[in-house]
Design brief:
The protein has 147 residues and is α+β, with helices and mostly antiparallel strands. The protein has one domain: Glycoprotein, Type 4 Pilin, CATH 3.30.700. It contains two helices and four strands, in the order αβαβββ. It has helices at 11-62, 83-86, and strands spanning 77-78, 104-107, 114-118, 126-130. It is elongated, with a radius of gyration of 25 Å.
């Protein structure tokens, strides 16, 4: 058989092409999942702004932030407890993110401070609010720098 007239690919050539395609697909999947996590975090940031805006409106109208957590001040609870008190100040209060993780709220015994715990994916979970106490959710949960 004359090798100069041979047509087709060898098994080694096919294996190399499959390996290259596999590597490219793996890289694409990793980048895609990172982009998805960043997109969900962007939605979480938007939700946080909506919650904070409603809380600020509540504060202006009532002179304090809502004290709604069943355990009282400093106990923390789901943002779902804010739905009723914040109803006059927002039309749609986000209480969970797109993956079902709950946003959390805590208010200090002093009426003028609160924090929200945000379950980010591409960045560490963080807390944001007004006069955020370092002890809320533990010192291992940093204060959000971009919220």
């Amino acid at each position: 058989m004359n090798h100069a007239t041979r047509k087709g690919f060898t098994i080694v050539e096919i294996a190399i092409v499959i390996a290259i395609i596999s590597v490219l697909l793996t890289i694409t999947m990793v980048v895609f999942s990172t982009v998805q996590a960043q997109s969900r975090d962007s939605d979480r940031r938007a939700d946080t702004v909506a919650i904070k805006t409603a809380l600020d409106r509540y504060f202006v109208a009532n002179g304090e932030y809502p004290n709604i957590c069943p355990g009282g001040p400093n106990s923390g609870c789901s943002v779902s407890y804010l739905v009723t008190p914040l109803a006059p100040y927002t039309t749609n209060l986000p209480i969970t993110d797109a993956t079902g993780n709950a946003y959390n709220y805590v208010r200090a015994p002093a009426y003028d401070s609160y924090a929200l715990r945000i379950p980010l994916e591409a960045s560490p979970i963080c807390k944001t609010g007004i006069k955020v106490d370092a002890a809320w959710w533990g010192t291992g949960v940093p204060t959000c720098s971009n919220l």
